[in-house]
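Inverse folding, one chain.
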């Protein structure tokens, strides 16, 4: 595999349908833009439709906008119904949207906001759309994680919603670790079907709006060092795009930048933390996620 994989390496995407969550800004916008410019029919699944329409107008290609609030199971079910009605097949589901370091808040269903949005929302959406992907050869589900999955990260089954105490950094770490564990367990369950694969990616340190909720102690360092270390959103989107389109990608792989500490650079195959590969925790998280969302996947265990 090339270590300088760029936008020019994206294969022709004509005839493919791609759903990208959080596509109106940052990494999601660049992912949607590059897929559309390579011929994909792209659905920008966003919380704010007006911002989505403004973003879509900046893209040259076949782009539509779908309202989706990942912090609401009702919205997720409604969006999935719309997408299923509009698209008999889906080739790519890019679980990109996310929130980071938010103050203590809950979703419409009472979940801690970072875990509820970043993990449970995408878990539910994937399960509700999966039968549109399963019949499609070469279809992929790409879930975006983060370097943050290594930072104070664990799956706190005794207090998943951080009701006893709250650390926005540790809660983000839990959510991003959950993204990886979901990918690995999903791939295990998909393997018997032989068509759809689940892959993960992370952008390194990218210059996006995601860090706007950083704790006060981190804002000044981010403001000073961020512009020096962070790469553009277009570069940060490349690991996701490689995971989504490179013909050599295999299910269960994880892609990130090839530079120092995986903070910047061109996308390459990387490894996640040892904790992320724990099979029993993956399976327990899957069961809990089904119980919390009420979504069951059309797969054999």
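Residues assigned per position:
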């Amino acid at each position: 595999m090339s270590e300088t994989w760029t936008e020019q390496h994206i294969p022709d995407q004509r005839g493919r349908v791609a759903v990208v969550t959080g596509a109106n800004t940052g990494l999601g916008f660049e992912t949607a833009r590059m897929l559309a410019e390579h011929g994909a029919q792209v659905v920008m699944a966003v919380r704010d439709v007006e911002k989505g329409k403004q973003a879509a107008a900046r893209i040259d290609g076949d782009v539509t906008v779908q309202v989706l609030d990942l912090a609401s199971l009702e919205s997720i079910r409604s969006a999935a119904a719309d997408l299923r009605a509009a698209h008999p097949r889906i080739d790519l589901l890019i679980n990109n949207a996310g929130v980071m370091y938010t103050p203590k808040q809950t979703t419409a269903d009472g979940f801690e906001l970072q875990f509820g949005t970043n993990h449970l929302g995408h878990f539910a959406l994937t399960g509700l759309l999966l039968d549109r992907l399963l019949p499609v050869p070469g279809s992929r589900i790409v879930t975006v994680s983060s370097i943050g999955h290594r930072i104070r990260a664990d799956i706190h089954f005794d207090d998943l919603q951080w009701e006893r105490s709250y650390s926005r950094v540790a809660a983000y770490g839990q959510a991003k670790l959950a993204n990886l564990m979901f990918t690995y367990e999903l791939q295990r369950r998909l393997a018997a079907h032989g068509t759809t694969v689940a892959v993960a990616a992370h952008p390194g340190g990218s210059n996006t709006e995601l860090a706007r909720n950083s704790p006060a102690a981190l804002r000044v360092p981010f403001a000073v060092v961020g512009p020096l270390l962070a790469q553009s959103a277009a570069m940060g989107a490349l690991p996701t795009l490689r995971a989504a389109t490179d013909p050599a990608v295999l299910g269960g792989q994880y892609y990130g930048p090839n530079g120092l500490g995986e903070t910047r650079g061109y996308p390459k195959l990387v490894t996640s933390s040892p904790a992320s590969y724990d099979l029993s925790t993956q399976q327990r998280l899957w069961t809990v996620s089904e119980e919390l969302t009420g979504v069951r996947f059309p797969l054999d265990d």
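DSSP finds nine helices and eight strands in the chain. The first helix runs from residue 26 to 37.
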